[in-house]
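Run log // design_07
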């Protein structure tokens, strides 16, 4: 076997898998769940970075038990991580405070201020506003900070002792120039005058960040010296693991947030900043739509009714498209597209008999999907052709959601054989980086194309449902434009 290890360090948990490139199959997998810190101010969303390290240790131990002696034959590894988080380390590389995450909207004022100062949109979710907020509101923590990292960079640092970033994840900070693939000096200074001295070095796509040091080897139970790839933000890793390493492959990722992205050989910049002009982690670019509310909204319904998703999906499938007029504005955590970080959600059109759990679940699912389709319209105006999509993430397993996506986007929806595209992408990037380290010059797409496969027949749109879902989306747009929950929250 030729084994490569991939971790995906997310908001709700960490997943890991071991991939054998000889047979193109996953030979072991494990996961570990965790939650956000409780008791924080409204809009705040934080985790302690050592939570991720504990989860990586747990996942590695589970994988080692499953693989037995073959575990120590791992050739290289890569780490995918949730984007935009702010990890602050002191001069002894100790965590200064918990990390503010991508879904933290407490820094909305700082985001607006930076957008005005820089003359371009800086989304609230990006790292930049978090650092301005910290420098201003927690100056003692900022003075103690010597190093600023992103979540997957911190995991890399604990594995290798190296402090570094790569262009894909760095392009989600708000102070990175996607054209030159370098930090934007003007934006860095606008965030905080001292920031430049706290940033790590940048590594090129496919350049190993280092090797497992003694502490990293002990953490994983692997030999010292194993190469560690640069890793990636979760969307960039998912792009590798879903085959979006060449033009024409559009991916919808349904996780806590939902994203839509595709490979581009050149930067695609949205004048209003709603579509992120990310770099990818293979040397290209990754225009990306992100909506903040996806599986998290469905989890709220599941928890409220004390029922499992499979039962709720079955009951929702028996309800009609349009949910008898029951409508959901799904902005449980504010929203990034449209740019309404302080908005709240709403359930509209309630009439006697409509609060049954399957119908509520369907209304929330339709609301999330309609909001996603609204954003995809913007991607299409920027030149992205959406006729067939690959769906990944936890929501990809839901057959009703795949049907709604097909009708909402008027596109065929394909499922991947491996739905954990982030962890797979990290493992494939490790294989590519290891090959380059050995002197083989080849594109990352050569690895992705050889190992990423779809499964089953695609879900196709039905013309009558496409027309019906267009009305669902139009109602959402009208509700958001007129709804007091939105207008008052953002006044």
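design_07 sequence
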């Amino acid at each position: 076997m030729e084994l490569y290890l991939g971790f995906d360090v997310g908001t709700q948990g960490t997943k890991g898998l071991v991939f054998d490139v000889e047979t193109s199959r996953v030979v072991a997998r494990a996961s570990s769940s965790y939650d956000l810190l409780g008791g924080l101010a409204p809009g705040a969303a934080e985790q302690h970075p050592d939570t991720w390290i504990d989860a990586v240790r747990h996942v590695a131990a589970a994988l080692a038990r499953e693989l037995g002696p073959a575990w120590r034959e791992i050739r290289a590894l890569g780490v995918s991580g949730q984007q935009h988080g702010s990890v602050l380390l002191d001069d002894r590389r100790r965590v200064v405070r918990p990390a503010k995450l991508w879904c933290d909207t407490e820094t909305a004022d700082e985001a607006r201020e930076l957008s005005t100062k820089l003359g371009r949109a800086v989304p609230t979710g990006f790292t930049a506003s978090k650092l301005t907020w910290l420098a201003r509101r927690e100056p003692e923590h900022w003075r103690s900070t010597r190093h600023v990292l992103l979540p997957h960079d911190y995991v890399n640092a604990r594995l290798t002792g190296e402090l570094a970033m790569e262009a894909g994840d760095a392009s989600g900070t708000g102070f990175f120039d996607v054209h030159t693939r370098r930090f934007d000096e003007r934006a860095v200074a606008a965030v905080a005058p001292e920031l430049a001295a706290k940033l790590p070095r940048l590594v090129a796509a496919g350049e190993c960040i280092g090797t497992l040091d003694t502490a990293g080897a002990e953490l994983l139970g692997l030999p010292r010296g194993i190469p560690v790839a640069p890793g990636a933000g979760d969307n960039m890793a998912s792009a590798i693991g879903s085959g979006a390493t060449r033009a024409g492959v559009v991916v919808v990722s349904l996780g806590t947030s939902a994203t839509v992205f595709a490979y581009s050989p050149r930067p695609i910049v949205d004048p209003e900043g709603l579509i992120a002009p990310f770099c990818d982690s293979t040397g290209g670019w990754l225009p990306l739509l992100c909506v903040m509310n996806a599986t998290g909204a469905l989890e709220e319904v599941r928890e409220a009714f004390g029922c499992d998703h499979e039962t709720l999906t079955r009951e929702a499938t028996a309800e009609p498209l349009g949910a008898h007029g029951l409508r959901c504005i799904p902005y449980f955590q504010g929203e990034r597209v449209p740019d309404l970080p302080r908005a709240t959600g709403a359930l509209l059109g309630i009439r006697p008999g409509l609060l049954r759990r399957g119908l509520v679940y369907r209304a929330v699912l339709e609301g999330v999907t309609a909001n996603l389709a609204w954003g995809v319209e913007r991607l299409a105006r920027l030149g992205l052709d959406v006729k067939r999509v690959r769906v990944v993430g936890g929501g990809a397993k839901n057959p009703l959601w795949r049907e709604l996506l097909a009708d909402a986007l008027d596109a065929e929806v394909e499922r991947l054989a491996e739905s954990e595209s982030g962890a797979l992408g990290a493992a494939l990037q490790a294989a590519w980086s290891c090959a380059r380290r050995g002197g083989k010059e080849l594109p990352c797409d050569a690895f992705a194309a050889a190992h990423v496969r779809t499964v089953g027949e695609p879900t196709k749109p039905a013309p009558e449902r496409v027309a019906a879902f267009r009305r669902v989306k139009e109602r959402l747009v009208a509700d958001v434009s007129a709804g007091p929950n939105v207008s008052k929250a953002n006044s």
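The longest strand covers residues 25-33.
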